[in-house]
Design brief:
alpha+beta; eight-stranded mixed sheet; six-stranded mixed sheet
């Protein structure tokens, strides 16, 4: 089988590596389009990985992916996985028991459900609702999606994947790929895994955008005295973050800017200020914003990084909705198996 994968982010490169090594194998061409040199989601992602998510449906893929990273010395080295633990504070009155049970099936003993007093007694939160619930997760941490992408690209090439740097202008239903240098290459399967650039490529190819859309993503590198706090999500405020390598703290809030052009993303100053204000309120400490990092990601409703068919032989593999780092390892393995089925 001849397979083309369009997209050189962590999703596309891992899918290429998985596909060329799958039982039965395939001839795989990977079109990176110069990815790795621009500020795509794989390069700028904060890389938080955890097994717990607020729903059972989302917890399964995240927990499975984290368990696979922890079980593989290769994936740990490729991704730079660091186990730091994490805390996820849910909205007041939320029930975390069922997702926590799913997480326990993949990572026994990793998570504990605690109440508000158990959170503020250990972590530096100061403004939580009286009936807040949190999940403290021992095996959570963070990875470098860019480092994982780079290692997977090298391994894919060594395993026989042909890497093309020429940008792809169009994908046809044949299926075929038309490159910017004038070639038309035909395949049995074509997968669009270009992240935030996928909707533009679909529209240019006169293919259905199929529920995919882009969204601005952003975080700020801050100075804040948050000793004892690792990766966290605080859903009552929307604030999330993790310690950064330079001794500061990576902090962010969700953004509501949709339909963003991935080639024209610039930092949102007011959003960076809201991050600082939210952190001051949640933690009761001074917060100084340093550098702000902005990019764009591809979202799908329902959310999830998975192989989706656009018709015979044409697929997308994107739509992780800002959380692909948590699920890409397991998702790429399942997508490769589905592609070759």
């Amino acid at each position: 089988m001849r397979v083309a994968i369009v997209g050189g982010g962590v999703a596309g490169t891992l899918l290429a590596w998985r596909t060329v090594r799958a039982p039965g194998g395939a001839s795989v061409d990977l079109f990176t389009g110069g990815a790795g040199c621009r500020a795509d989601a794989s390069r700028v992602s904060g890389g938080l990985v955890r097994g717990f998510e607020p729903t059972v449906a989302a917890t399964g893929p995240a927990a499975e992916s984290l368990a696979e990273i922890r079980a593989s010395a290769v994936l740990r080295a490729w991704s730079g996985y660091r186990e730091t633990g994490a805390v996820y504070v849910l909205p007041a009155g939320a029930d975390a028991r069922e997702p926590a049970e799913v997480l326990h099936a993949y990572l026994p003993g990793s998570a504990e459900v605690v109440g508000r007093d158990g959170v503020v007694g250990v972590f530096p939160f100061r403004t939580l609702p009286a009936d807040a619930v949190a999940v403290v997760e021992r095996h959570a941490g963070h990875i470098s999606p860019h480092r994982l992408r780079t290692a997977a690209l090298r391994a894919a090439a060594e395993a026989g994947v042909t890497v093309h740097e020429a940008p792809v202008d169009e994908v046809t239903r044949d299926p075929a790929v038309r490159t910017a240098d004038g070639r038309t290459l035909r395949y049995d399967r074509v997968v669009l895994a270009a992240g935030a650039w996928t909707p533009k490529l679909l529209a240019r190819s006169r293919l259905p955008v199929a529920g995919l859309r882009t969204k601005h993503i952003q975080y700020s590198l801050c100075r804040a005295p948050l000793d004892g706090l690792g990766p966290f999500v605080e859903e009552n405020s929307g604030l999330y973050g993790r310690p950064h390598e330079d001794g500061g703290f990576l902090l962010g809030l969700p953004c509501d800017r949709w339909g963003v052009d991935p080639d024209a993303v610039t930092p949102d100053g007011p959003l960076a200020e809201r991050v600082a204000e939210s952190a001051r309120r949640v933690f009761g400490v001074s917060v100084a914003v340093g550098r702000t990092v902005a990019s764009c990601d591809c979202y799908h409703d329902p959310a999830g990084l998975e192989l989706r068919s656009l018709g015979p032989g044409v697929h997308t593999f994107t739509g992780g909705s800002g959380g692909a780092a948590k699920t890409v390892v397991a998702a790429s393995r399942k997508a490769a198996a589905a592609l070759l089925a």
